[in-house]
Amino acid sequence: MSSPAAAANVRHHFENAEQQKDASTIGMWIFLVTELMFFGGLFMAYFVYRQAYPDAFASASNKTDLLIGAFNTTVLICSSLTMALAVNAAAVGKKALLIMFLVATLLLGSAFLGVKTYEYHDKWVHHEIPGQHFECEGCKDSGHASLFFSLYFAMTGLHASHMIIGAGYLIFLIIQAKKGKFTPAWHTPVEMFGLYWHFIDIVWIFLFPLLYLIDRVHK
Amino acid sequence: MSALKESSHDQTTEGHAAHHGPSKGVYYAVFATLIVLTWVTSWIATVDLGPFNIYVALSIAVFKATMVLFFFMHVKYGTRLTKMIIMSGIYWLILLLFIVMMDFWTRNWMGVPGR
User: Fold this and answer.
1) Domain locations in chain A?
2) Would the pLDDT of A6 be above 60?
3) Which residues from chain B sit within 8 angstroms of residue A74, using beta carbons?
């Protein structure tokens, strides 16, 4: 085995480092496509019930806080930028910069989850959690407004659980980066995690308008 | 076997392009676009466009997602196989959403049992 190949940790069943990386990339994308279908089922449920009970959905979605939603979207996009820059730093072999950007991504991701916790708490205080004590002040169709909140919690909850898993993996990546495991020739975990993180960002890019925006003017 | 070799060679050259990815300037430009569009879409949501609010919001979301996909996720610089996997995923998602919604949109058109 030639030395550049050894440096890139090429396994014996691959011809070269490029082929190995392409295989990882394709594997990651196949995983992300299954994730797309996973979230897709919830999006479908949202569209079905929204067209069935438009008034209930409109009045219930006005209970979300537009400003907090926009702020949190901004935070998440910032974390996507720092993640993209982390992959870039890994590719050029700047270890300190890589660690810095990974930590920044972790902090921004945690900030997003913190704001989400605040929002959940706010819903809890206002009895907007679907169930026995559900109340929706000023909602047109309280029964079906609870459907909106069921979907709200299912969709943002699934999204948040992906963020929590991502934050855990980020800690692992930071430790690995500190040990100097990533080189310009081999930093596949950083790159693949980047894809995962950006995918979560894309899911939020759609959740934000659907849950916060589209019925602002139609109360 | 030689065909296999050839195709793997093709991927190698394409994969090499993927290695470079976009420059930092591209990242910052995409980032600025995403932030601006986030606040634009939040503002437009408060303007009454009648039935078009949802279309405007979702169009902006699709554009933002495409930006992330192409540049942050390096798809623009990726192999054809990656692009094909993504397109097939999106295709199945559209099938799921569109076929189901065609059913629900048209159920009220006929006053027959089973709606």
Assistant:
1) 12-213
2) no
3) 35, 38-39
